[in-house]
């Protein structure tokens, strides 16, 4: 559905995005991660044709994105933009009509979205009367009310409590199940892991990681070892950190080789009740990449 090929974006001497390529299919969710200033928002703006690439190409449904395609796209920017003096209904209808829906269609869909996202307020409530969290939910409704084929969400989880994060994750999963392609950015690796099929990591505008979650995680060393049993933990060697993980403990090593060496040290112990080498979490991988750790 979306193909980005060797895209570069420069602002004078600054290269915000460098030779970036990736694909996003229908019914697929891509998590875009990276530090502030990595090029995530610039990438979104090029996809939406808000910014023109310095080099490379972007295509949507097999052709260069044009104004007519915007009705098939839902975009929620990191900077929230709602009209404070409008009611929820007025706000949603306004954006829905911009995307080709009739007033009647928008009003008919609004009630279900209010329930689905647990918006606290009535359709007649003004935006300025809502909490920031509920304003964010209304903005999400304006993004999705027209049932877009491509959904672009810039930091959608920012500022949401755990209950509302869970509700948003379910909304993204539902959109995926209906065939929408979803790309979103987030600094919360747990959310990215829970909802994404693929992950793309940018560092200083360059692609550093890209692929399916399992594929990406399998390409990194397993530097954590879970052990369960009655040990003299101080006698074990090579670990950098240790933490409780009931009923055992997790030991962190500098390398997988050191983790395996520790495992060999205890493997034949009668006190060993369980063990496993742990695949790195996405948060671990993020830190490894920024720290320069090698992977396969």
From TrEMBL:
A Pfam family per the record: ABC_tran
Keyword list, A-Z: ATP-binding, Nucleotide-binding, Transport
Coiled coil: none
UniProt entry tagged with the keyword Repeat: no
ABC transporter domain ranges (all copies): 2-229
Gene Ontology MF terms: ATP binding; ATP hydrolysis activity
Top-rank taxon: Bacteria
Tagged with keyword Oxidoreductase: no
The family this protein is said to belong to: Belongs to the ABC transporter superfamily.
Protein name: Sodium ABC transporter ATP-binding protein
């Amino acid at each position: 559905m979306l193909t980005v090929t060797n895209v570069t974006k420069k602002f004078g001497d600054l290269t915000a995005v460098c030779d970036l390529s990736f694909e996003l299919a229908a019914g697929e969710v891509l998590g875009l991660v990276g530090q502030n200033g990595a090029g995530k928002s610039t990438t979104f703006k090029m996809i939406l044709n808000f910014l023109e690439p310095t080099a490379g190409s972007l295509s949507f449904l097999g052709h260069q994105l044009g104004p007519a395609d915007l009705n098939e796209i839902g975009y929620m920017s990191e900077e929230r933009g709602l009209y404070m003096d409008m009611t929820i209904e007025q706000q949603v209808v306004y954006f829905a009509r911009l995307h080709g829906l009739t007033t009647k269609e928008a009003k008919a869909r609004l009630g279900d979205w209010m329930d689905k996202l647990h918006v606290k307020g009535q359709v007649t409530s003004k935006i300025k009367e809502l909490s920031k969290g509920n304003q964010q939910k209304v903005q999400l409704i304006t993004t999705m009310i027209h049932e877009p084929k491509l959904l672009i969400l810039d930091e959608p989880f920012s500022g949401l409590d755990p209950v509302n994060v869970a509700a948003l994750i379910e909304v993204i999963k539902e959109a995926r199940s209906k065939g929408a392609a979803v790309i979103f950015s987030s600094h919360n690796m747990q959310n990215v892991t829970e909802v994404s099929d693929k992950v793309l990591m940018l560092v200083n505008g360059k692609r550093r990681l890209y692929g399916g979650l399992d594929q990406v995680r399998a390409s990194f060393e397993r530097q954590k070892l879970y052990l369960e049993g009655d040990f003299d933990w101080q006698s074990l060697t090579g670990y950098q950190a240790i933490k409780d993980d009931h009923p055992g403990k997790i030991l962190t090593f500098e390398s997988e080789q050191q983790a395996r060496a520790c495992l060999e040290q205890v493997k034949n112990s009668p006190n060993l009740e369980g063990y496993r080498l742990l695949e790195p979490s996405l948060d671990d991988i993020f830190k490894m990449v920024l720290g320069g750790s090698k992977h396969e």
